[in-house]
Amino acid sequence: MGKAVAAITGSSGLIGSALAAALRVADHRVLRIVHRAPANSEELHLSPESGEFDRDALADVDVVISSTAT
Predict the structure, then answer these.
(1) What is the pLDDT of residue 70?
(2) Rounded CA separation 25/30 (Å)
(3) Which residue ranges does the record assign to the NAD-dependent epimerase/dehydratase domain (predicted)?
(4) Does residue 51 come out as left (phi exceeding 0), alpha (psi in the -120 to 50 range) or beta?
């Protein structure tokens, strides 16, 4: 199996950050879905209030993981 691409919400939290780190150690690519302006090419912006999100950015993503708090 090749390198997987995972997009993660809640990646700054306890579980999400640990998951992102574990995926990177396993040599997978991680895209963080964030509410603020993206800091680099490994982050995707999502605005729940406006619905703003670049769906095309998920074209090569193998899995989306939600680890956001409720």
Answers:
(1) 55
(2) 11
(3) 7-45
(4) left
Single-letter amino acid code for the residue at 61: V
pTM equals 0.85
Alpha helices in the chain (DSSP H): 14-25
Nearest Cα residue to 41 out of 3, 2, 5: 5
Amino acid at 56: D
Tens of pLDDT, residues 38-69:
999 999 999 888 888 888 989 999 999 999 88
User: 63 in helix, strand or coil?
Assistant: strand
